[in-house]
Amino acid sequence: MLIQILLVVAVIALLFLLARSTADARHQAVTRLAIGLFVVAALLTILWPHALTRVAQYVGVGRGTDLLLYALVILFVAQVARSHRRNNDLERKITVLARELALAQARTEDGRVPAPQPPAGTPAP
Q: How far is residue 47 from each of residues 13, 42, 50, 71, 80, measured CA to CA in Å?
């Protein structure tokens, strides 16, 4: 069936995208493009619901609602994986900040007060 091939390809593409680094602008552009395509698809589905049923029958699914469910499951898994990755990144940053804070407090308790840093954007004396 065509739908099985499409779903397998979607899951593999999702795994590939999630395995990449997210620090670049290209990834953000792909995300914005995907959101835009989702909005357009949602509007088209709302305006012409029978078209979704025809697309579903073309790919081998009986009803448009079933095709919509498959698409939403793929999107849900993508969102969960993306949130998991973002959470891991935030935990890593919090750990680094906590270590820096602990070291700074340890330095001040030892009597070795670090020299105050000028605020960002001000010229050094």
A: 29, 9, 9, 18, 29
